[in-house]
């Protein structure tokens, strides 16, 4: 939901810029980082006037231009820099991430040590941490064992972390710190996708995960598929399908949350065509939609 909303906001902003220019060629709509962790989708957006910028690229070019804050959100300092440069901020932060930011700020202001469970290099985590100065980011139960603190703790999850990972971290902290508040911030869509993958694995011989390699939730789907005991591959496009996949009679297809539907359909069509060419092998087990 968050990614689709961000893309829709960016495209509607680009359309409004064209309309305001009388059909001419207005400047680009910038996004603070790629809206989607998928190179093909980012290229398609760029062709429609939606151009990603890294934080290190922020300069005078954004003055007066729309800059979309992606679904991952940003720390307060990034918003302040955009405002100082004269950018027109279009906030596409996912409502669930906004809720985590608010909770982090609230707990921090009340004297809690905020602990964020997730990937410290992920944009969402960096954004939430920015609302709680001194926050700790941990990615495993082992790191939770090493925390040294006195006083109350508040635990917040990256929205795409696996529920099992979060539960293991929570168990360690609950044992070590009696004054622990836990925020249930995992996105339900993330867990629903993993449960669906578990069901799908029982119906197929191998699994193809479609999505960007730098997408956290896509990478976790690949890990889940392998843990389910199925041969699995992550591909960004149909052209990356390995020859080996066509040796399986029934192939399951899943995709990261931000993977465009057309890319999933492209992979399904390639599997069907390849399977037919090899005498009926590799029929996809993936209900579209």
Explain this structure.
The radius of gyration is 21 Å and the shape is flat. The strands form three sheets. A four-stranded parallel sheet has the order 2-1-3-4, with helices on both faces. Strands 6-5-7-8 form a four-stranded parallel sheet, with helices on both faces. It has a four-stranded parallel sheet with strand order 10-9-11-12. The mean pLDDT is 90. The chain folds into three domains: 2-93, Rossmann fold; 96-186, 4-hydroxy-3-methylbut-2-enyl diphosphate reductase, catalytic domain (Cobalt-precorrin-4 Transmethylase, domain 1); 189-285, 4-hydroxy-3-methylbut-2-enyl diphosphate reductase, catalytic domain (Cobalt-precorrin-4 Transmethylase, domain 1, 3-Layer(aba) Sandwich). It has ten helices and twelve strands. It has 289 residues and is an alpha/beta fold. The chain has helices at residues 2-20, 39-47, 76-84, 95-109, 123-129, 141-145, 163-176, 188-201, 216-227, 261-277, and strands at residues 29-32, 50-53, 66-69, 88-91, 113-117, 136-138, 153-157, 180-183, 206-210, 232-235, 250-255, 283-285. Strand 9 (206-210), helix 9 (216-227) and strand 10 form a beta-alpha-beta unit. Helix 4 runs parallel beside helix 5 and helix 8 (188-201) runs parallel beside helix 9.
């Amino acid at each position: 939901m968050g990614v689709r909303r961000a893309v829709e906001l960016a495209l509607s902003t680009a359309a409004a810029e064209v309309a305001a220019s009388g059909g001419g060629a207005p400047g680009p709509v910038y996004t603070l980082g790629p809206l989607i962790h998928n190179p093909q989708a980012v290229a398609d957006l760029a062709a429609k006037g939606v151009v990603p910028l890294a934080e290190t690229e922020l300069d005078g070019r954004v003055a007066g231009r729309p800059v979309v804050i992606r679904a991952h959100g940003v720390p307060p300092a990034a918003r302040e820099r955009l405002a100082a440069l004269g950018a027109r901020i279009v906030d596409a932060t996912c409502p669930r991430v906004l809720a985590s930011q608010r909770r982090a700020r609230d707990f921090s202001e009340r004297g809690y040590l905020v602990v964020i469970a997730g990937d410290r290099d992920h944009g969402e985590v960096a954004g939430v941490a920015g609302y709680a100065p001194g926050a700790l980011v941990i990615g495993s139960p082992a790191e939770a064992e090493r925390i040294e603190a006195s006083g109350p703790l508040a635990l917040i999850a990256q929205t795409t972390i696996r529920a099992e990972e979060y539960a293991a971290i929570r168990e360690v902290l609950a044992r070590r710190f009696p004054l622990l508040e836990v925020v249930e911030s995992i996105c339900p869509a993330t867990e629903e996708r993993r449960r669906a993958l578990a069901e799908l694995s029982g119906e197929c011989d191998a699994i193809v995960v479609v999505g960007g390699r730098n997408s956290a939730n896509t990478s976790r789907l690949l890990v889940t598929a392998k843990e389910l005991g199925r041969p699995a591959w992550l591909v960004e496009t149909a052209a990356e399908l390995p020859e080996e996949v066509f040796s399986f009679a029934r192939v399951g297809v899943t995709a990261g949350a931000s993977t465009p539907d057309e890319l999933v359909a492209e992979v399904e069509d390639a599997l069907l065509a390849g399977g037919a060419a090899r005498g009926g092998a590799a029929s996809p087990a993936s209900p579209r939609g």
